[in-house]
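Design request, tokens follow.
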């Protein structure tokens, strides 16, 4: 092994050790908020609805201005219709999302601000991240260069390290759930499928089909390792422009995932190929922790504590012109927020 590689590995080991005090301190904050479970702190009349940023299964996400302050402060408002949540049998997921979102605090996770509800809807307010999502940026660029893909993957590695340390499996990594801030760093959003498992296992099949891990589809107990599988899918998709497993129907897609025959394009570097193969493999061969993944030579140039502190110049920085700039979001059709005179499903959402 060459001397420069030995030095890089030594540097990484020191950097990995420096993350442990950060994780311990972060876990204390998480546990304090988790136990207190803060109650509703705002109401709809305090916000001016500006523009729809995206839509989802239960409702939509809007750019809003907080008018209860003399300053012009913009947030993202996730609006979930109670009746759609009930219809999707997703009450537990939504309650988990609220509790997890308000408890986590990490540089590469979207910051919680407020939550509240009215007769018809549930509202989650977070910081507004104006650089758009990875999906939209990837669609515009086709694919990312290796250094940009590595930069994004490293931040997700740190985010997953934190989530796993506090006992949470994320389960829904995909380009649509990863936002780019005005400085070029990532923010993971949408904790609808996240779950606190505290080093135990779970069996629920959830997430995005193209990102399902094979152990999910085999109805086996699984733990944090499913997140490392999804990171492998994401690295592939950012490098190629499409995920590795694609089919015309779900059954065919699931067969491909279980067979796990991954086509590696010729233009993938050996480093990219190796990191994908190390993640898209059986559970016992996948990295068992973030520390193990950081040892992969794909990340040899990453200074982990510098990245955590954002003391690195991102390879790509969006050109944001104002606090309410929406140029990196696709135009959406506008719809009024549903209003009801009576509180529906009050009992089901009493803990929101």
């Amino acid at each position: 092994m060459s001397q420069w590689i030995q030095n890089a590995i030594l540097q990484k080991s020191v950097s990995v050790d420096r993350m442990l005090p950060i994780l311990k301190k972060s876990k204390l904050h998480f546990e304090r908020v988790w136990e207190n479970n803060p109650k509703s702190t705002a109401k709809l009349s305090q916000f001016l609805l500006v523009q729809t940023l995206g839509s989802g299964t239960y409702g939509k996400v809007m750019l809003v201005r907080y008018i209860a302050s003399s300053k012009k402060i913009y947030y993202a408002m996730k609006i979930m219709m109670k009746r759609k949540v009930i219809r999707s049998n997703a009450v537990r997921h939504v309650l988990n999302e609220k509790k997890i979102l308000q408890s986590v605090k990490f540089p590469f996770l979207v910051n919680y601000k407020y939550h509240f509800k009215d007769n018809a809807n549930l509202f989650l307010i977070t910081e507004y991240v104006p650089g758009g999502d990875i999906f939209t940026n990837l669609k515009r660029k086709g694919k990312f260069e290796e250094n940009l893909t590595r930069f994004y993957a490293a931040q997700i590695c740190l985010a997953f390290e934190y989530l796993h340390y506090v006992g949470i499996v994320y389960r829904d990594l995909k380009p649509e759930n990863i936002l780019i801030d005005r400085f070029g760093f990532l923010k993971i959003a949408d904790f609808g499928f996240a779950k606190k498992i505290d080093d135990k296992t779970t069996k629920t099949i959830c997430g995005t089909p193209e990102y399902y891990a094979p152990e999910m589809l085999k109805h086996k107990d699984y733990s944090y390792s499913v997140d490392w599988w999804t990171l492998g899918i994401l690295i592939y998709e950012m490098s190629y422009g499409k995920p590795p497993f694609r089919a015309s129907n779900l059954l065919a897609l699931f067969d491909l995932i279980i067979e796990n025959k991954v086509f590696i394009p010729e233009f993938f570097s050996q480093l990219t190929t190796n990191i994908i193969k190390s993640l898209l493999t059986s559970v016992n061969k996948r990295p068992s922790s973030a520390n193990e993944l950081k040892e992969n030579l794909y990340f040899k140039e990453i200074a982990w504590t510098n990245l955590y502190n954002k003391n690195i110049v991102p390879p790509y920085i969006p050109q944001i012109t104002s606090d309410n700039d929406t140029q990196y979001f696709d135009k959406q059709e506008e719809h009024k927020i549903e209003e009801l005179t009576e509180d529906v499903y009050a009992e089901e959402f009493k803990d929101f």
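Comment from the thread starter after seeing the answer: thanks! The domain at 44-127 is CATH 3.30.200.20 (Phosphorylase Kinase; domain 1).
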